[in-house]
């Protein structure tokens, strides 16, 4: 008659059983070693930036930190900034610490060089980063894939240089910044930073380190106030109590 697996196991010689258990034990330990090695290698391969990513506006002591990930060729990013600027003006730099992250999407041809352009401007004058971003958004139709399909990369950079010149950045200084490998590296770090935080589209928002899955370019000032006002009222109560 056919023996069950358990019967075969019970009837097996002790040495065979011992060898089998040893084999399983070794396999298990090898598997654990592989998992640990891969995890260690993964952590070692991550690039740790010298400072927290992004362009910052406001006070470090502000009770709320609002972060946004933008693709500077993205229509939705442009639409959201029109409202987000009102949010920042409404609350002011002492209440909101704002951080702008570049997250160029791979299907937008000019989003990566546009992000490099902001760093090139920042090298000349950090106060001009937001004006440069607003110029890119205002001229969004000119930098779309179809609008630049017959342009070389050099011609695209020249177009960006024209934008930069209109806010006071000398053409040669700007183009030198565009060619600077450090700025290229900064944008790559920003993209990896976004990927680490599960960003896959733009605009994406984070509030006090928490990703806002519901927030998008359609949110108006009232929507943001509904979210932010309770946070500030809590902070005000804490300050009153401590005083």
Write the layout of secondary structure elements.
Blueprint: H1 5-11, H2 14-45, E1 55-57, E2 64-70, H3 75-91, E3 96-102, H4 111-124, H5 129-138, H6 153-165, H7 171-179, H8 181-196, E4 204-207, E5 210-212, H9 221-242
Parallel strand pairs: 2-3
Antiparallel strand pairs: 1-3, 2-4, 4-5
Explain the overall architecture.
- The chain has helices at 5-11, 14-45, 75-91, 111-124, 129-138, 153-165, 171-179, 181-196, 221-242, and strands at residues 55-57, 64-70, 96-102, 204-207, 210-212.
- A hairpin with a 2-residue loop joins strand 4 and strand 5.
- The chain is built from 9 helices and 5 strands.
- It is α+β, with helices and mostly antiparallel strands and 243 residues long.
- The longest helix has 32 residues, at 14-45.
- Helix 4 packs antiparallel against helix 5, helix 4 packs parallel to helix 6 and helix 6 (153-165) crosses helix 7.
- It has a 5-stranded mixed β-sheet, sandwiched between helices.
- Residues 32-43 have low confidence and may be disordered.
- It is 58% helix and 10% strand.
Low-confidence stretches: 32-43
| Whole-number mean pLDDT | 86
Number of helices: 9
Radius of gyration: 27 Å
- Number-wise, the strands total 5
Widest sheet, order of strands: 1-3-2-4-5
What profile does the largest beta sheet have?
5 strands, mixed
Q: What's the quick description here?
A:
58% of the residues lie in helices and 10% in strands.
Features:
243 residues; alpha+beta; 5-stranded mixed sheet; 9 helices; 10% strand; globular
């Amino acid at each position: 008659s056919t023996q069950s697996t358990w019967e075969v196991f019970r009837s097996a010689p002790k040495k065979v059983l011992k060898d089998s258990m040893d084999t399983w034990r070794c396999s298990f330990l090898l598997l654990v070693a592989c998992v640990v090695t891969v995890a260690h290698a993964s952590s070692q391969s991550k690039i740790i930036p010298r400072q927290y990513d992004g362009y910052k506006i406001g006070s470090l002591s502000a009770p709320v930190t609002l972060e946004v990930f933008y693709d500077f060729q993205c229509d939705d990013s442009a639409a959201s900034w029109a409202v987000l600027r009102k949010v920042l003006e409404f609350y002011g730099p002492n209440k909101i610490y704002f951080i702008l992250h570049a997250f160029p999407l791979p299907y937008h041809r000019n989003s990566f060089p546009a992000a490099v352009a902001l760093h090139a401007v920042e090298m000349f004058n950090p106060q001009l980063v937001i004006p440069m971003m607003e110029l890119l958004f205002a001229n969004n139709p000119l930098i779309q894939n179809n609008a630049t399909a017959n342009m070389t990369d050099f011609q695209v950079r020249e177009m960006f240089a024209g934008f930069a010149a209109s806010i006071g950045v000398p053409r040669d200084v700007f183009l030198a910044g565009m060619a600077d490998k450090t700025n290229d590296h900064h944008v790559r770090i920003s993209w990896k930073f976004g990927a680490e935080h599960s960003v896959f589209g733009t605009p994406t928002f984070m509030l006090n380190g928490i990703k806002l899955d519901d927030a998008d370019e359609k949110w108006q000032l009232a929507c943001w106030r509904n979210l932010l006002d309770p946070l500030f009222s809590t902070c005000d109560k804490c300050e009153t109590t401590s005083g």
